[in-house]
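As promised in the previous annual report, we have extended the structural survey to additional targets. Below is the entry for UPF0149 family protein.
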Amino acid sequence: MATPPSLRIEILFAELNAADIAQHPVEVHGSLVGLICGGVGQAKSEWIKPLLELINDGQLPPPSLVQLLEELYQDTLARITDADFGFTPMAPEEEEPLTKRVEALSLWVQSFLTGIAMAQPRLNRASSDVKEVIQDLAEIAQVEFDVAEDEESEAAYIELMEFARMAALLCYAEFGPEPSEIKDQDPMIH
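The corresponding structure token record, generated without further manual editing, is:
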């Protein structure tokens, strides 16, 4: 599934800057994914408030940014709940320097951990697999940004991205709604 043009990093970055929100788009995405994977309710009234608390001290941003956040939520939810849509953590383009991509991954992971902790009060009673994954993510969040621009570092980055992706999917499988609880949010009849 292609990313909608409105959800490209540079568009989100511009909207966040216009709203005076000092967050990188990957942080917003990480927080949102953490909330979703922590089992936050799928009604807008259930996920928007905690997201705004994480990214904007609970303040309502301009309507254009709220609209983008809704699009980002719907796109992210679709990707997490359907393997065919290919969920991945938001990241800068491959052409960006590796240091910038590693830093963005660290920010995404930190935000994911904050979001999931906010949405899931029983995180300390999670399965041993989820606890281990959360611990590993905490270590990824501390990764050094000073990396060499070589094939070995690139391969390590790709491995960390894949780990973050699988960790999010594992957390969603544990804390997300049962498939029978997911309501069709699309008002269009197929």
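Residues 181-190 have pLDDT under 50 and may be disordered. Helices lie at 9-18, 25-37, 44-56, 63-81, 98-119, 128-140, 151-175. These points will be discussed at the next consortium meeting with the crystallography subgroup.
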